[in-house]
Amino acid sequence: MQEFFEFGLGGRVLYKAGLARELGQVVADLGAQRVFVVADKGIVGAGLLQPVLDGLAGHAEVVGTLDDVPPNSSSSVVMAGAEAARAAGADLILAVGGGSPIDTAKGIRLLATFGGAVPDYEGYNVIASRLMPMIAVPTTAGTGSEVTSIAVILDEAENRKISLVSRYLYPDVAILDPELSLSLPPRLTAATGMDALSHAIETYVSTENNPFSDSLALAAIDLIATHLRDAVQQGNNIEARGQMMIASCMAGIACSNSLFGVVHAIAHSIGALYHVHHGTLNAIILPYGMQFNSVVAPERYVRIARAMGVNVGGRSDEEVIADGVSAVRTLAVECGMPTRLREVEVPEGALPELAALSSVEPAIFNNPRVSTEEELLELLRTMW
Fold first, then answer.
1. Is it true that domain 12-181 has CATH number 3.40.50.1970?
2. pLDDT > 90 fraction of the chain, expressed in percent and rounded
3. Ramachandran area for residue 154 (φ above 0: left; ψ -120 to 50: alpha; else beta)
């Protein structure tokens, strides 16, 4: 056990099917009256935003809406949203959607509170004090951004992803309503579910792991191994959808406290250049990253294998770990995920640049295995 660790619980988490239609009282409890809403076109097109807006009627006024957040949250969108929120006199930010709208909303509340630009706050604990209130309503079971102190924003000028990490970025309230995920297509259900699994696995082996995040991470792995297939293959299965939302939230709390590793370092580097869906990248990279790290943290990968349902009794660590990696890869394949970078059009010629970017990406510094740029290049080649 580490000599010192810090664990934060963040804001309130409320779970209930249909809860998104009852947000008015939650807003009132925060003392807010003027709401700025952040979403994306997919949320609007799927009809998921209207129930949320209906729930606000009679309790708060919607003074502005940003509903065209791109798949990879960007600094220019954050800046525009912050300016709109300030101009509207908003006193609460309400995010509805997946990781991109929620991370965008975190950036908007930051700039709306203090001004400046996203790069001004890059890094850990740069934010000085509390921000304006925020409610996060996830419509996917993947990023866990509704309960994290992290926002990842694309800097278009430098073509890289900026990580903001601060206890002040936690949303005040997270609303888990599995009804909002029922219309999520199978491919996105799979990608976001594998994203949540990557959070749980990476945080469990991170150099910043601790007993609290360990417990949440292992429970999330178990839930995902049990329910992701049903959520993908039976989209209207409210039980599977609900369990996946809970698992994603648990993994989010865990990774917000114990952070990531090589899987996210590579995924962030690729995503900045090629704009492949983050969950899809994590699904591809995760088994390779597990094998890469298992040589320095075998006991932890044995425990992960157990959570994935692998029989451990009377077998060597090497056999158990191999089966754990296989269980993760099999889950991804059975949910329709690609297994190679070439399948998402990452060119082989880009691998050296991606290795260089990954070697300095912030997530790499909490990876259990210290790795050189050359080792990362070799790892990338195995997954290409």
1. yes
2. 90
3. beta
Say if residue 1's pLDDT is above 70: no
| Distance between CA atoms of residues 341 and 384, nearest Å | 5
The strand pair at 173-176 and 92-97 is best described as unpaired
The label of the residue with tokens 């090589």 reads 262
As annotated, the residues of the chain forming the CATH 3.40.50.1970 domain(s) are 12-181
DSSP codes joined into one string, 244-285: HHHHHHHHHHHHHHH---HHHHHHHHHHHHH---HHHHHHHH
For the domain 186-383, what is the CATH code? 1.20.1090.10
CA distance 71 to 41: 10
pLDDT digits (tens, 9 = 90+) for 35-66: 999 999 999 999 999 999 998 988 999 999 99
Average pLDDT for 223-240: 97
Q: Quick check: 108 and 78 in contact, CB under 8 A?
A: yes
**Residue 239's CB: how many other CB atoms inside 10 A?**
12
CB atoms within 10 A of CB 41: 12
- Beta carbons of 151 and 171 less than 8 angstroms apart: no
Q: Specify the 3-state DSSP secondary structure of 338.
A: coil
Non-local (6+) Cβ contacts of 340 within 8 A are 284, 383, 384
In the beta sheet, which residues pair with residue 175?
Answer: 14
Give start-end residues of each CATH 1.20.1090.10 domain in the chain: 186-383
Condensed to tens digits (0 to 9), the pLDDT of residues 309-358 reads 999 988 999 999 999 999 999 999 999 999 999 999 999 999 999 999 99
User: In this structure, is the dihedral angle defined by the CA atoms of residues 332, 333, 339 and 343, taken in order, positive or negative?
Assistant: negative
Residues 27, 56: Cα–Cα separation, whole Å: 8
Three-class secondary structure of residue 176 per DSSP: strand
Dihedral sign for Cα atoms in the order 370, 302, 202, 189: positive
**What is the C-alpha separation between 98 and 221, in angstroms, rounded?**
20
What is the mean pLDDT of the segment spanning 108-134? 95
Question: Residue 158's pLDDT band (boundaries 50, 70, 90)?
Answer: confident
> Exposed, middle or buried: residue 45 (CB in 10 Å: 0-12, 13-18, 19+)?
exposed
